[in-house]
Design goal:
Number of strands: 12
Radius of gyration: 21 Å
Largest sheet: 4 strands, parallel
Strand order of the largest sheet: 1-12-10-11
Strand content: 15-25%
Helix content: 40-55%
Shape: flat
Number of domains: 3
CATH architecture of the largest domain: 3-Layer(aba) Sandwich
Order of helices and strands: EHHEHEEHEHEHEHEHEHEHEEH
Distance between the termini: 15 Å
């Protein structure tokens, strides 16, 4: 059995940057991180915290916690240390609160998300009715919405776009991990819901490469394995893209989830991974697939 890993799979630029920033912060504040002073929240004074999970990968978050880097749900839970904002971006009011409380703030927002922030502000400033193509409730979408004072309509597909009321001028921005084909469909639908439509394609280029690479591989193999956090939007989209080719597709977080029966009769197995999936998890999956293939080949 041949195991093929997609040309573009795993960590994206924004995720790598976020992890590098938090690693440097932890190293620079190691004395504070190992402080024994505790507070009622259970947080340690002088420690390094991330606001929410830095990225959408439980295994990588667990690795950070083993290094003493904790995730907190609110600014109030960070006890006088360093607060790292996630790669998905946050509400500017939250950052202001953190600075006002005396925390050292490190902004690990992905540069592609920052670009989307600027684009959505431009649309609002120029008087466009703003539409966001994205997942409601996702932190990136929440951050985008916050930058226009909550005055944005969120859609997930063309059908929802067609249901919007008519406006003279509409502007569209996109969650960076969306699919280009869905963007085209939504933009086409919005042309009937306004006289003027301005579109900012804020999909990350690396996301497009990862999606195309996954689709091309899925068309050539008998089974696809998509590796990444179950809470990762971009990994879920990879699964959708691979499954749409008709190839049996399985979404897992770790090698332990692999099932031998998935490989029955398969000559070639493809592997791809979301932007928050580290190389070591991909390598473990490939190693486990090889072991399962060897077991199946034994008489």
């Amino acid at each position: 059995m041949e195991i093929i890993v997609a040309k573009h799979a795993g960590f994206g630029f924004g995720v790598k940057r976020a992890l590098e920033l938090v690693a440097r912060a932890a190293e620079a504040h190691s004395a504070e991180t190992h402080s024994t002073e505790t507070h009622s929240t259970g947080a340690r004074a002088g420690a390094v915290y991330t606001l929410g999970h830095l990225i959408h990968n439980p295994q990588e978050i667990a690795r950070l916690e083993q290094q003493g880097i904790r995730s907190v749900d609110s600014v109030d839970q960070a006890a006088g240390g360093v607060l790292v904002l996630s790669a998905h971006g946050v509400d500017p009011a939250v950052e202001s609160q953190a600075l006002a409380s005396g925390l050292q703030v490190i902004d690990a927002t992905c540069p592609f998300v920052h670009r989307a922030h600027e684009d959505i502000r431009t649309l609002a400033k120029e008087g466009y009715a703003v539409v966001i193509l994205g997942d409601p409730g996702h932190r990136e979408v929440a951050g985008l919405t916050a930058r226009v004072g909550g005055k944005a309509e969120i859609v997930t597909n063309a059908e929802e776009a067609r249901a919007l009321p008519f406006r003279e001028r509409r502007g569209l921005v996109v969650q960076t991990t969306q699919r280009p084909d869905v963007l085209r469909e939504v933009a086409a639908a919005l042309t009937d819901r306004c006289r003027e439509l301005r579109v900012f394609n804020t999909i990350c280029e690396a996301t497009v490469q990862r999606q195309e690479s996954a689709r091309e591989l899925a068309e050539k193999v008998d089974v696809m394995v998509v590796v990444g956090g179950k809470n990762s939007a971009n990994t879920a989209r990879l699964r959708e893209i691979c499954a749409a080719t008709g190839t049996p597709t399985h979404h897992i977080e770790t090698a332990d989830e692999l099932t031998a029966c998935w490989l029955d009769g398969a000559r070639r197995v493809g592997v791809t991974a979301g932007a928050s999936t580290p190389a070591w998890i991909i390598e473990e999956v490939v190693s486990r697939l090889r072991a399962l293939a060897e077991e199946a080949a034994r008489p």
